[in-house]
Each structure stands twice: as structure tokens, then as C-alpha cells.
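Can't paste images in this forum, so I'm doing it all in text. The chain is below; anyone willing to post the predicted C-alpha cells underneath?
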Amino acid sequence: MTVIETSPGGTGTRWRAHAAVLAFGAFAVGTDAFVIAGMLPDIAGSLGVSVGAAGQLVTVFSIAYAVLAPILAALTASWSKRTVLVTALVLFAVGNAVTALAPAYWPVLASRVIAAGGAALYTASASATAAALAGEEHRGRAISTVMLGITVSLALGAPLGTAVGAALGWRATMWIVTALALVIVPVVALRLPDLRQDAAAGLRSRLAPLADRRVLTVLATTVVVFTGIYIPYTYISAVYAPAVSGSGNRMAILLLVFGVAGTAGNLIAGYLTDRQGPRRAVLIATLSLTAVFLVLPAFREPFGAAVPAVAVSALFSFMVTAPLQHQIISFAPPGTQSMVTSLYQSALYLAISLSGAVGAVGLNVFGAAWFTPFAAAFVAVAAILTWTAGRRSGALQV
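Text version of the structure:
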């Protein structure tokens, strides 16, 4: 049961505005997650550690995100969504402020755990809240609107944050991320309806989705498909080395194209999910992406061919997020929506963590020329999981 105690202007016609507010918070979270990688040399020099050690800030953030997402969701299940979101943003801001202030490597590393906890709690709660406010008819578009903040952070937030870090130092970038989170706190507190959902009583009830084979299938699909998606993204410089030819400007263009096309794919996915159903949307995205990854070796050069290749792969890569979240929310027992979205986020960040290690093996075994077909195998497995799960349940719409 869902209860909206305070709804300024009503939610039936205003879910888009509420989802846009939530997307701004997602932009702050996404910028923080992506921007660190672009500032690793500066961070390493400032803290007196190697670039490899500085890279563990990214690893720790991803692992902490994956571990803390379901734990924090369970602990806050009985809270109103507005309280959860405000708490998450404040925790996220505190973590980033500590990152900006910490004088040495180990305090900075610890601060990434705090920031990851806030990010995990916010993203899962934002998706569940937007889905609840929009209702089943518009659920896909509501989720994709929130995720728009993530894709825009990839296209604009991370590059701009990196540029600020280069000009003013990496700590200035962390203060900007902190400010972004704090700016949205009063907006969420004053404008977002006070949404309350009856939480499942007891930890066992809240973890009940883990006993549902459909939920487990979506989580497995999430891990497999995003491992496949992030393998070529993590090593994009190696995949498109012939086209880039060592030019930083060309690589920046490819990353910008990836972010813009990914944003478009995310928005398309929302409409496709609401009109065709999440299962069909996942199948369309994964089958298309498998085909794209298989033919990408032919488009690694020249640069004029690499640009559309990156755009098409990003388009389909970001078409799986909204339908997968829609699916897992549809399967959630009453009172566990935030829990299942947190499990989804946990699976996503587990995949991101795996992609680096798995991709390194694939790069060594197959080489850069045949690297994307290796990633295609993971995406194809995700398509098979989605197809067989639907055949078992006989459901085409979930």
C-alpha cells in the first residue's frame, strides 16, 4: 500500500516534475562516480601515492556501493521516501566534503565509503519513488527520467568536473559535487510529496525478493549485461586506439558522443518500456547491442567510422537500465520496492567492478581487435536469460 501524505499539486499530473528533481540528485551522484577516474594523476600527486593506489578510490567506491545498497535500504525501509532521499543526499555530501578536506590517502579512501553509501541509498530510493509517483502506466518513463541524471553526468558532469580539477585542483571538483548535493536537499524536502509505502515487517520479509526466481533472474541479467557493456567502455582507449592515434581531443570527442548517445538511448528506453513492456525492451536492446558489438571491429578506424560506432553502441547500452528496473519493481512484493531497486543497484556496481578484471583477461587473450565480440558474448547471455525467463512464466509484458 502506498500513501502520499502531502502532495503539492498532486502527483498524477506532476510526476515528470518530481522525477526531474530526482534526476538532478542523480546527476550529482553520477558526476561523483565518474569524475574521480579523470583526476587520478592529480589525486595521486597530491596525496603522494601511485596512480594505481589512487585508482583504488574508484574500486572502493564501487564495492562499497554494491555492499551498502541493500543494507541501507533494509535499515530505512520504514522511513518516508522524502526522509530517505534527504538523508542520502546529506550523507553523500558529507562523504564528498571529507574527501575534499582529508589531508592523506587513507582518510580519503574511507570517505569514499561514506559517499558511496549516500549514493547507493539515493539512487535506489529515487528510482523507486519516481516509479511509485508515476504509476504503472508511466513507470518506464519515470525511471528513465531519473536515470537521465546519470547519463548527463557521464556526458557533461564528469568532463566539466575533470576540467575544473585541472584548472583549480581536484579538491575544488569535490566541493562542487558536495554543493550540487546540498542544493537539491531543500528542493526535495519542500517540493517532493511525502510518499510512504508500507514496509515489509522484519528483515526476513524485506529480503523475501531474494527467494523469487524472477527477481534473481533480473539480478543475474543485470550483472551479466553490464559486465558486457562496461568491458569496452572501461577499455575504450584500447578499442579505438587506431582511430584516436594518441589524440586526447579525439578521445574526448568519443567520450562526449558516448554520453550524448547514451542519454538518448535512456530516454528511448523509457517510452519503449511503457509501450512494449520491459521484457521486450530488454530483448530489443540486448539483441541489438550483441549485433553491434560483433561488427564493431570493422569500425575501429578511421575516426569518421569510430564516432558513429561509439554512438550506436552507447545508444543500445543505455536502453537496458529502465526496463530492467521496471521488471524488478514489478516483481517486488508489497513494501519491498526500495529493497529490490537497491539490489539492482548492487548488481550494477558489482558488474562495473567485474568489468575491469574480466576485460583485462579478454584484452590479453583476444587483443583489442576482437575485444568487443568478447563483450558481445556477455550481452548475448543476458538476452538468453531474459528470453528463457519469459518463456517459463509465459509473460511477454514483464
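The two ends are 21 Å apart (CA to CA). The chain has two domains: 8-197, 202-398.
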